[in-house]
Structure formats: C-alpha cells, structure tokens
Design a protein that fits this description.
429 residues; globular; alpha/beta; two-stranded antiparallel ribbon
Length: 429
Amino acid sequence: MKKLSFIILIALTACLFSCSKSSNTPATTTVTPTPTPPVTPPVTPPATSADGDVVGKLVVGYQGWFSAKGDGSPSNSWNHQNIEIWPDTREYTNTYSGSPFNQNGGVTQPPFTGNMGNGSPAVMFSSYDQSTVNTHFLWMQQNGIDCVALQRFGSELSNATLKAQRDGMAAKVRTAAEATGRKFYIMYDISGWTSFQTQIKTDWTSYMSTLTSSSAYAMQNGKPVVCVWGPGFSSRPGNVTSWTDVLAWFKAQGCYVIVGAPGNFVSDAANQSVYTTANMIMPWEVGNNTNFQNFQSQNANNLSYCNSFGIDYQADIYPGYAFFNSDATKPKNEIPRAHGDFMWSQFAAAKSASVKSVYISMFDEINEATAIFKCAEDATMSPAGEYFLTLDADGTHVSSDFYLRLTNNGQKMMKGTIPYTATNPTSFQ
C-alpha cells in the first residue's frame, strides 16, 4: 500500500511539473491571417445619376499655372516654363516676353528674347491674366466644352505666395465661367501633399466652398462637385484609411465626390473601399498608349464595375503625350497624336462601350503636350532654334484649333447629336 501511494505521489508531482512548464512556455503555432474580404456589390445596386453638370457632359482639366513676370500675379515670375508644345498666342489680349525656358531636366536658360520661326517675337501668355482666362473660356464655349475641373495643387498651399496665386486663379475662373455659361469645379491634386488629410478639409471650409455660391459652380444631383485626384496611386501620399476618410468627409459636407483613380482601379483589391466611397470614378489614362479594342474593353469593364455599385463613371481621353523638354531621357513625341486619330479612337471606344461622361486631359497642359487648346501648327509658329513639338509632327498639317474642333465633334458623338463613327470626322483646316 505504501509502495502504491509512493508511485501515485510521484505521478502527481510529474504532472504538476509538466503543467507548470507548459503554462510558462508559449506555444509555437503558425497563425494564418484572415484575408480582407473583397468588396461585393449590392444585390440590387442603386441607380446611377441622371445627366447633370458632370454626368453626361464633357469636362476639361484646366491647369491655370502659367505665370509671367509683370503679369500682376502674387508670384510675379515665370512659372512652369518647361514647355513641350508651344501655344498659339495670336488671339491673346496680353502677352509677355522674356520667358526662361526650362529644358531637358530643369536647366534654366536665360530669358528668351528671340523670335518665332516666322520672325515675329516669341511671347507667352499668363494664366493669371483675366483676359487670358476669358479667351480660354470663349474657346470652350465655341467648341462645346461644358465644364472645367480647375486643378488645385495641395502641395503649394503651404507657401503663402503660391496659395494666393491659386486662390486668385479660382476667382478668375469663376468670373470667366459665369460670363460664358460654362460650369467649373475644384479638383484637388494630392501629389506631394503629405498633410492632405487635414489641410484639404481646412482649405475647403475656409475658402474653396465659398465658390459653390456661384451660378457657374458645377452641381450634380443637387450637390456641389469636388474631385480628389491621387487616391490609389502608390506614388501619392496616403493610404486606404486616409483616402477613404477624405472622400467620406467631403460627402458628409454635402458634396458629390469624384475620385481621380489609377487606370487599374477595378483590379486594385487593396483600395476597393476607397473607390466605392466615391460618387464618380475617373481613371487616369495619360501614358496609356493602346488601341481602340483595348480602350473599348477597358471602358466597358470600368463602366460595368461602376454600375454594379451605383457609381457614375467618367472616361479619361487625351490627345497624345511628350515630356522631352523636361526630361531628356524621354523620347521626343513619345505618344504621337497621329493628327487626331489617337484621340478620336478613344472617343469612339468610349461611345461604343456606352460611356456618357468624358474628362479631357487636358485643356492647357503644354508641359506634357496634352493640351487641346490652340498650339503651334509648325516650326514657323514656335521659337526659332529651340525644340518644341508642333501639331504637324507626324507630317500632316492641322490648324491650331484642330483639337478644339475634334473635341467638339467628340462631345456631339457622345451625346448622340451626330452619328457614331470610328473614323475622325474633323477637317484638318
């Protein structure tokens, strides 16, 4: 009996020792993280919006960032003179001479006081000049452009001079839009704006929201339109949390919110909650050099995605692209315009995919040669002895207003006032 009791005592002691050791030694088990469930569309998605100031309309992006010394602007200096394609300045009321061209990686040349290829003085416009903005909006009115997305670069707003420049441009655009019956809205670009999550809210409430009292401020579904460009881009500040917060905040302010998204937003699983927060999605296509079939398929897929969530869709269309004068490692005429055929193929692709809302990149972007406003037709209309892309680069001469007229035809086809055609109907002259 004593022997049995001793054996039992030994067993109990061993058990207690074993249990005590186990409680102080963490288990080495592998934990598989729970994957984030995909965002699924509602069984019955809400209806997309009826036509308004942006839905069913043609919108152009407007940089408004070219200034000149002596133009009365807060900066009173030459800004954004890394010009790739030279503007046709014949119709401007006021022009300015002495532009220091920044070429091939930002090397600033001395102020240029030379002549054009035809012998006339080489002059530039200033976006800050009200007469310039009036001229631009007149061209928009004449060519069926419904609405303007005024770019507001948040990274500049911490600089008092640049903020005053941007504030002044907003006031000038308002004046010109009211005078010509065009609509406009603010498009915030968050590139380089690390503090955008807080500062964008302050900027809107302190000044930009006051623009919505204008009869020309774009309204959609009875709400003022605002766009935030950059969410979803890995090269832009922020993440899914900060991006979603900003979009949701604008919606809480009673705004109709557009997000300027990457072209692959449909397959961007990590940021789906960002895109589904928006009222409208505009995927950025500049640099996407593809063909009609791919543009058509992409637009159809994007539209199907947006429809499944009850989100409005806006196709992005651009004429061509080049950036050689800013970066000499880039090729000249990188994405050729093909005398309008490239741009028209995008209109045709969007129409055949049943898209009804269009954004044009851009109206006045002469730095990247995506401008559709009046530009130099040939070397006689750009500075002599300097390289600038001209509209005849592919060997076909077109008038300086060709891309404005092409855009006019494009918006007519999108709205059904002229028949669908896969071939560009715009005359060269």
